[in-house]
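tl;dr need the bound structure. longer version: we got a ligand (calcium ion) that a collaborator sent over and nobodys looked at where it sits. i said id run it. heres the input, straight from their email, havent touched it
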Amino acid sequence: MRTGRRTAPRSPSGGSGQSPLYDPRCMAHGRRTILMVEDEPSITTPLSEALEREGFESTVARTAEEGISLAGDVRPDLVLLDVMLPDGSGYDVCRELRRDSDVPIIMLTARGEETDRVVGLEVGADDYVVKPFSARELVARIRAVLRRSRTAEPAAADEAIEIGDVRLDPTRHEVTRAGDLVDLTRKEFDVLRLLMHNAGAVVSREQLIEDVWDVNWFGPTKTLDVHVSALRKKLGDDPAAPRYLHTVRGVGFRFAAPTELSPDRSG
Ligand code: CA
């Protein structure tokens, strides 16, 4: 096992209240590895240097194919993924990685159009950075995403939740409806989990954004709606008269309470 530099982490409590540069939890397992899937040396060279300086290991893959293979070999703690790769699209790489991994993924793209953000989210990316960006900005994003993915996982109870014929099993990361597997992206799963966990009560848009993405996410409003409508579709919910996933206008969303879905209530 490789050991990191044994520099004592700066105390996060003695700072200015901003997020600590040295998160002691990040240091606990030595240096974290960032895989960059990016073909432009003008980006990877300075970024590798910045990451090393900030205490990360970095590895570079220059093609989609190499990215997928390195992700399997290196088991990175986070992946930076360019959208335009010489042999394919970063979105496809993202989809491929998501088939068997929850590794945090930040998409790097030159385009700032909303459709790109939405596609990035739909394929399971955690965050999105528009080129050109500063190394400093990106490192801050990396730290935020790493913090979030760490706290998100073991936080809530691991017990399966069953409401009506929808069953969500956090340990197996699995959702079924009437016994049939529902294929969800990780973010869709997280949204559904939070809503089912609070079944019967409204969860505000802000809370959903904060828990599932973070407050710095670009265009959060649209993003959340995209996920909710995808969830409705996958659960077979009618957007005009949903059984499970209700919109509470101006506030947020609500998953039906178990009593609302009992057999004697459904016509
Ligand atoms: Ca590129």
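gonna send this back to them w/ a short note. The chain has two domains: 2-151, 158-265.
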